[in-house]
Amino acid sequence: MTLPALFPTPTSIDLGTGSITLGRAVVLVAAPGTDPETVALVREILVTAGIETIATAKRLPATPDRPHIVLGTGDTALVRDALGRSRATLDTHAEGYTIASVAAGAGIVTLAGNDADGLFHAVQTFRQLARRASLPALVIQDHPAMPIRGTIEGFTVRPGRWRIAPSISTSSPR
């Protein structure tokens, strides 16, 4: 299995062994305190991916009989357990996240945010992964490179006109 193409490109992607086929039924396990809108968004992503039955659970079984999708922040025992089963650690940067999938049993996919913003970004990356017929076993970690997420424009202003700067750090009006 090849590495998935993701945008924006995460800080790191480590491909594991095996893959997870979501099939038509999964179990969604939301950690206590997870925003209901985030849970609803994951449900929507799963339905769009062709999942017909989404059961819920409060914890992970010893060996999953169906793919389990775990989501929440890294300060919860449930998420720490799921990450541990994948041998993954949480990206602890502000707005950071870790997505870990392991093909043990029917498979576990963990969407772990360092905080609620990180979890939101994990879900957005999961949306891209769920478009595939099967998910590779992997660990993705990401966090913003700058204190504020967004785009830096390379424009400078000269009275009466705009021009694109050749370099953000070295450009200056002429």
Could you give the distance between the termini? 51 Å
What is the overall pLDDT average? Answer: 89
Strand arrangement across the biggest beta sheet: 1-7-5-6-4-2-3
Weakly predicted, low-confidence segments: none
Number of strands: 9
Assembly context of the chains:
single chain
Instruction: Look at the helices and sheets and give the structural class.
Output: alpha/beta
Query: How many individual helices?
Result: 3
Q: What summary fits the major beta sheet?
A: 7 strands, mixed
H-E order: EEHEEHEEHEEE
Query: Helix share of residues?
Result: 10-25%
Which overall shape is indicated by the principal axes computed on the Cα atoms?
globular
User: Beta-sheet strand percentage?
Assistant: 25-35%
Cα-atom radius of gyration? 19 Å
Structural write-up:
- The protein has 174 residues and is an alpha/beta fold.
- Helices cover 21% and strands 32% of the residues.
- The chain has three helices and nine strands; from the N terminus they run E-E-H-E-E-H-E-E-H-E-E-E.
- It has helices at residues 36-48, 77-85, 116-129, and strands spanning 12-21, 25-30, 53-56, 68-73, 97-102, 108-113, 134-142, 155-158, 161-164.
- The strands form two sheets. A seven-stranded mixed beta sheet has the order 1-7-5-6-4-2-3, sandwiched between helices. A two-stranded antiparallel ribbon has the order 8-9.
- Helix 1 packs parallel to helix 3 (116-129).
- The longest helix is centred in the C-terminal third of the chain and has 14 residues, at 116-129.
- It is globular, with a radius of gyration of 19 Å.
